[in-house]
C-alpha cells in the first residue's frame, strides 16, 4: 500500500448566493449579456431608422404624386381657358361689323350703341375696316346679336338677280317732284333695272334670299302707282268679298311717302319704292346682321345718284338727295330702344311693307306693336310726326304672304283689327295679274304657278290651305285718332 497525498489547491469563489462559479466563465456570461443588449439596442435603432426612412420616402412619394396631379390639373385648366378664350375671340371676330348710329357715331364690334340704334354700314371688321370703340354702353344688346346664318360661307354662293320695271314710273316720279336731281330722266330705255344680290344656297328660306313675296310686293306697288298715275276709275284688283270703295289699290301708292319695310331681307320692295316709284324716304329694316350686311350692299348698289366713294367713307346708308333717301337700320320687333331711335331719327311712317316675314304666332304681338308705334295715325306718339305735306294721311300697311306659315289668316287679321284698330281693305291681286308683272320685271321665278291649282281665275287669297294661312296681298288702314 502506497499512500499518495495530493494537495489540490482550487481557488473557488463563492458568490453571495452560495453558488460557486469560475471567474472567467462569469466574465464570459457578463460579456455575452452586454453584447446581446448592445446588439438589441443597435437593431432597435436600425429598425427605427429604417421605419423613419420608409415613412419619409412614402410621404415624399405621396407629395410628389399630389404635386404632379395638381400640375396636370392646372395644365388642363389652362388649356381649357385658352380654348375658351380662342373660341370667344373667334366668335367675336365673326360677329364684328362696323355699326354707325343715328348721330354718326361709330359703334364697336357687333354691339348696339348707346341709343340702341344700328344704322348699318354692315361691313365685317375682319376685312380691314377699322372702327373706333364706343364706350358709352356697358352691356350688350343680346336681342340684337342673334346671327341666324353662317358668316363663313364662300363668296360664290351669292348671285345677282336683275328685275326690270317700266321707266314710265320713274319718269312719272320725276314729273311729280320739284327736284330735278332726285331722279334721272335722261335715259331712253323703256325699263329701269334693279339688281339684287341674294344667297342662292338658301332659296326662299332666309333673309339672305329674294322671297317670292318680295317680288310680288314690288309688282303690286308698281301696279298701285300706275293706277294712281292713270287716274283710272276702274278698280281692277279689288277683293271680290268687299265691294266698298276702300278697295282702291291706289292707297298703296308710295310716291312722295315715307316708307318702312320690316323683315326686309334682300330689300327688293324698298329699293323699288326708292329707285322706281319715287318714295320720299325709305327705311329698310331687318333684325339679323348678316341680312343687314347683304341689304346694305343692295341698297348702295341701287342708290340714286350716290357717290360710292362718299358712301364708303362716311359709312352712311342714305341717298345724297334729301327728297329721295334710303337708309338701312336694325329693327327687332317689340324692342323699344330700336323703336325710339327710329322715331327720333326718322319720325313716323306713312306706309309699312312686309312680305313673307310672318311664320309663327308669337311674332304677331311684337310685330303689330312695332307697326302701331311707327305708323302715322297713332295719337299716342304724334309728337314724333314731322310730316308736313298732308297731316291727315291714313297709315297704310301692305302685307304679302306667299310662303308657308304657321299663322292662321284669321289670327293675323284679328291681331291687326281687334287689338290695334286697323281696318282691312283686303286688296288681293289675282294670279293673272301677277303673271303679267312676272313678264315685265324679268324675274326667272316660275314657282308661283305651282300654287295656282284650279284657282287661276280667282283671287289667290281666296283659297284656303292646310296650314290655314292664305296667300295673297292685303292692305290694312287706320285713320288718325282725333
Summarize the structure.
By secondary structure, the protein is α/β, with parallel strands linked by helices. It has helices at 23-95, 167-176, 212-229, 268-275, 289-301, 308-314, 336-346, 364-374, 409-419, 431-441, and strands spanning 13-14, 20-21, 97-100, 106-107, 119-124, 158-166, 191-199, 258-261, 281-286, 325-330, 351-355, 395-401, 423-424, 472-478.
Furnish the topology, listing elements before pairings:
Blueprint: E1 13-14, E2 20-21, H1 23-95, E3 97-100, E4 106-107, E5 119-124, E6 158-166, H2 167-176, E7 191-199, H3 212-229, E8 258-261, H4 268-275, E9 281-286, H5 289-301, H6 308-314, E10 325-330, H7 336-346, E11 351-355, H8 364-374, E12 395-401, H9 409-419, E13 423-424, H10 431-441, E14 472-478
Parallel strand pairs: 8-9, 8-11, 9-10, 11-12
Antiparallel strand pairs: 1-2, 3-4, 3-5, 6-7, 12-14, 13-14
Helix pairs in contact: 3-4
Protein name: Calmodulin-lysine N-methyltransferase
Biased composition (Acidic residues): 1-12, 441-453
Region (Disordered): 1-94, 437-469
CATH fold node name of the largest domain:
Rossmann fold
- Record the strand order, biggest sheet: 10-9-8-11-12-14-13
CATH class group of the largest domain = Alpha Beta
Q: How much strand content do the residues show? A: 5-15%
Biggest sheet details? 7 strands, mixed
Give, in order, the helices and strands: EEHEEEEHEHEHEHHEHEHEHEHE
Distance between the termini: 177 Å
The portion of residues assigned to helices is: 25-40%
Within CATH, the superfamily of the largest domain carries the name Vaccinia Virus protein VP39
Give the helix tally: 10
Q: Gyration radius, to the nearest Å?
A: 44 Å
Provide the number of structural domains. Answer: 2
Strands, count: 14
Mean pLDDT: 67
Structural class: alpha/beta
CATH architecture type of the largest domain: 3-Layer(aba) Sandwich
Q: What are the low-pLDDT stretches, counting only 5+ consecutive residues below 50?
A: 8-14, 97-154, 177-188, 233-246, 306-321, 387-391, 442-467
- Based on CA inertia axes, which overall geometry fits? elongated
Amino acid at each position: 500500500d502506497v499512500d499518495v497525498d495530493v494537495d489540490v489547491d482550487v481557488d473557488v469563489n463563492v458568490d453571495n448566493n452560495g453558488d460557486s462559479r469560475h471567474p472567467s466563465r462569469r466574465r464570459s456570461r457578463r460579456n455575452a449579456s452586454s453584447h446581446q443588449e448592445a446588439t438589441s439596442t443597435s437593431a432597435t435603432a436600425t429598425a427605427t431608422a429604417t421605419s423613419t426612412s420608409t415613412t419619409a420616402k412614402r410621404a415624399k412619394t405621396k407629395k410628389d404624386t399630389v404635386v404632379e396631379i395638381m400640375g396636370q390639373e392646372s395644365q388642363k385648366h389652362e388649356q381649357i381657358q385658352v380654348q375658351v378664350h380662342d373660341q370667344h375671340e373667334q366668335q367675336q371676330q365673326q360677329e364684328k361689323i362696323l355699326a354707325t348710329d343715328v348721330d354718326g357715331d361709330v359703334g364697336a364690334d357687333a354691339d348696339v350703341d348707346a341709343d340702341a340704334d344700328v344704322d348699318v354700314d354692315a361691313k365685317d371688321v375682319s376685312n380691314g375696316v377699322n372702327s373706333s370703340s364706343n364706350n358709352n354702353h356697358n352691356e350688350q344688346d343680346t336681342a340684337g346679336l342673334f346671327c341666324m346664318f353662317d358668316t363663313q360661307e364662300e363668296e360664290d354662293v351669292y348671285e345677282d338677280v336683275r328685275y326690270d320695271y317700266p321707266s314710265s314710273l320713274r319718269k312719272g316720279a320725276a314729273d311729280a317732284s320739284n327736284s330735278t336731281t332726285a331722279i334721272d330722266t335722261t335715259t331712253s330705255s323703256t325699263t329701269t333695272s334693279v339688281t339684287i344680290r341674294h344667297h342662292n344656297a338658301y332659296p326662299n328660306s332666309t333673309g339672305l334670299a329674294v322671297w317670292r313675296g318680295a317680288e310680288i310686293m314690288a309688282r303690286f306697288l308698281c301696279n298701285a302707282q300706275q293706277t294712281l298715275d292713270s287716274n283710272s276709275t276702274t278698280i281692277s284688283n279689288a277683293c271680290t268679298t268687299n265691294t266698298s270703295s276702300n278697295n282702291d289699290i291706289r292707297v298703296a301708292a308710295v310716291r312722295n311717302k315715307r316708307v318702312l319695310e320690316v323683315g326686309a331681307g334682300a330689300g327688293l320692295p324698298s329699293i323699288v319704292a326708292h329707285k322706281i316709284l319715287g318714295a320720299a324716304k325709305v327705311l329698310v329694316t331687318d333684325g339679323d346682321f348678316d341680312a343687314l350686311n347683304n341689304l346694305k350692299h343692295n341698297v348702295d348698289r341701287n342708290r340714286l345718284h350716290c357717290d360710292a366713294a362718299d358712301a364708303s367713307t362716311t359709312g352712311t346708308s342714305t341717298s345724297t338727295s334729301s327728297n329721295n333717301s334710303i337708309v338701312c337700320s336694325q329693327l327687332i320687333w317689340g324692342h323699344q330702344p330700336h323703336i325710339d331711335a327710329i322715331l327720333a331719327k326718322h319720325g313716323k311712317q306713312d306706309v309699312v311693307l312686309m312680305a313673307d316675314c310672318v311664320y309663327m304666332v308669337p311674332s304677331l304681338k311684337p310685330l303689330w306693336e312695332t307697326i302701331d308705334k311707327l305708323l302715322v295715325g297713332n295719337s299716342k306718339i304724334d309728337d314724333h310726326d314731322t310730316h308736313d305735306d298732308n297731316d291727315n294721311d291714313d297709315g297704310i300697311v301692305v302685307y304679302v304672304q306667299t310662303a308657308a306659315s304657321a299663322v292662321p289668316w284669321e289670327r293675323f287679321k284679328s291681331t291687326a283689327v281687334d287689338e290695334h284698330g286697323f281696318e282691312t281693305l283686303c286688296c288681293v291681286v289675282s294670279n293673272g295679274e301677277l303673271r303679267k308683272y312676272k313678264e315685265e320685271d324679268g324675274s326667272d321665278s316660275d314657282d308661283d304657278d305651282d300654287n295656282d291649282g284650279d284657282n287661276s281665275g280667282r283671287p289667290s287669297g281666296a283659297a284656303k290651305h292646310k296650314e290655314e294661312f292664305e296667300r295673297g296681298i292685303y292692305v290694312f288702314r287706320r285713320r288718325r285718332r282725333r
